[in-house]
User: Fold these one by one.
Assistant:
Number 1:
Amino acid sequence: MSIKTATLNGVATIEIARPEKKNALTGAMYRAMADALDAAKADAAVRAVLITGQPGIFTSGNDIEDFARRQPGTESPALQLMRALMACDKPVVAAVTGAAIGIGTTLLLHCDFVYVSDEARLAMPFVGLGLVPEFASSLIVPQLMGNVRAAEKLLLGDPFTGADAVECGIANAVLPAGEVVNHARRIAERFNALPPGAVRDSKTLMRRARAQLALETIAAEGEVFGNRLRSPEAQEAFSAFFQKRKPDFSKF
Ligand code: COA
């Protein structure tokens, strides 16, 4: 079982649990997370959603073997998760228990509250994999922090700390590793005492101005991303990852 779900005290928890592969996300895992978000949205007893990982690792991002195997023209399985996340009108709280790489950071841009362990590192290393930013990160990251800091994170793929994430507006707070999940859960449980209709309408209003542009950006990114997955640059990057060596882009 690599996605665990449970609902307790008004909070639907989605736990990524594939520690042997550093919580890398497969198609089946994306689908399980999307289904859990849809179920949480439909369940009146759920007032908020909590997404979390394992001690030391939130997620190492998309399973790179899945990337390498993706057939041309097939829809990204991650898109199902991101659509469900963007359509979720209940508050979504992320407890970033450790490294959050690729979509591990991108999905945080679509959560409402983000708490990061003091041991966590975040990164969006798409360019180094011969790919491009996805799921509206090419729009939201420059909006949040300006072009020059976005370039460090999206063009160079530099990793950054939880404190940087707070400073850039990606996260609310950094917490000691042993406290991050409980803190995030306490924030999620606060919605049990708030009127759910007003919360839902307010969240929808807060996202209204950006919603259409985000969807258009996701479509544009998705087209380029799909082409880049089959590029010689990406193939070199994937081979290098599995051969545990540095990629060589000198021939391109
Ligand atoms: N996809 C597939 N397998 C992955 C993976 C991923 N995204 N991330 C880690 N794994 C696998 C490794 O291949 C390794 O498998 P093995 O034991 O069969 O060799 C196992 O998980 C442990 O990973 P390892 O790299 O040995 O752990 P580490 O503690 O040294 O490093 C990370 C952890 C997360 C920093 C490192 O695994 C990493 O950089 N992963 C890739 C991140 C990435 O580029 N994601 C895609 C973003 S678009």
Note: Residues 196-229 form the longest helix (34 residues).
Number 2:
Amino acid sequence: MSSLAATETATAFVEKRPLERYAEPAQPSLVGMPRAMLAQALAEVGVPEGQRRMRVQQIWHWLYVRGAQDFDAMTTLSKDLRAGLARRFTLARPPIAAEQISVDGTRKWLIQLPGERAEAPHEVECVYIPESDRGTLCISSQVGCTLNCSFCHTGTQQLVRNLTAAEIAAQVVVARDRLGDWLAGSTAAGAGRSEGDKRLVSNVVMMGMGEPLYNFEAVRDGINVIADGEGLSISKRRITLSTSGVAPNIARAGAEIGSMLAVSLHAVTDELRDQLVPLNRKYPIAALLEACRNYPGLSNARRITFEYVMLKGVNDSLADAKALVRLLKGIPAKINLIPFNPWPGTKYECSDWDQIEKFSEVVFAAGYASPVRTPRGRDILAACGQLKSASEKLSARERLALRAMAMTD
Ligand code: SAH
Ligand code: SF4
């Protein structure tokens, strides 16, 4: 085998290719579109160039401040323009295929997205986690995932496709619809919130399905829609992008996105990380941490969150905990310990609770405080909702996991 072929084989093992592309429907929705696309849409219905900026501004307000579901609600636009838009476009949201509500108010939605073949749509997860001082929405960036971490259920799926920027931003719109989280009088049911009220969805974490840094442009553009101060208005300080460690794109994310960053570390040696996060063979720990050190704007007030999944007998020894704090020395960091969520067929088990506590004590002792103050540091025990089943209720561990995710800010 030539060395090029060998490299390609190694790369193919680490990264999968999408099976499908986004197929635009005959009548696309304007919901989630970045400003430039919206201007293009206006051009298509004959709005002269000189007016487009103003029209985008008006529609932006209706879409992302008022949550308009109907062109007729957009009373600052002429009747002709509304009719023209309605002929060519819709304001449709991706439908919610299933909803689960846990006793603590956490809500998980399966959101349906079109497949290349109309009869085979896709689903992605979106989870809302209410807390006393914030509400965090966990959104997806891909159907499936480019990568194949051995402990992750999504990783076993063949990558199906990348989400578009509009589909990424539309998850926030769907959540605000469902929660009645628009300004007063603006929802279909009239159940909006009054001006000045705190919004329910105040934070966003990109920790659902997919590796966001392998869908870079769409993630960047989608985040820009979510963060736009004249629209959905969730500032980049309240948006966290989680990556498994696509080192070169971390620098690019720093330059072009500027959100908060979370890094799925999970192991302190390359030998183990190669098994858990096979992408490590391409970007080993040293390269990854170098990229983290260079992430712009880091300070004690603006830290990188390092995620660490607790796998029994694999990465959860106290020696691992000590090595972890040594490794992160000098990087403004938070550490999220994630209880492993088992799934059918996995070879891993979650660490014992006792062990997680001991591990977290080492981390605490090294000065990694958690943003939520409760006794004995239970609060830093974080986990990810690797929630695959639409029919099951959230388990206690999943609820803990989801609550912990809300602490990344
Ligand atoms: N692909 C990105 C973001 C999505 S996953 C990433 O890997 O960072 C969000 C977090 O959940 C990651 O830290 C991921 O490693 C972790 N995770 C994946 N599967 C898990 C499981 N079964 N139990 C607990 N955490 C898991
Ligand atoms: Fe993809 Fe993240 Fe799962 Fe790894 S942990 S397979 S990067 S979703």
Note: The two ends are 48 Å apart (CA to CA).
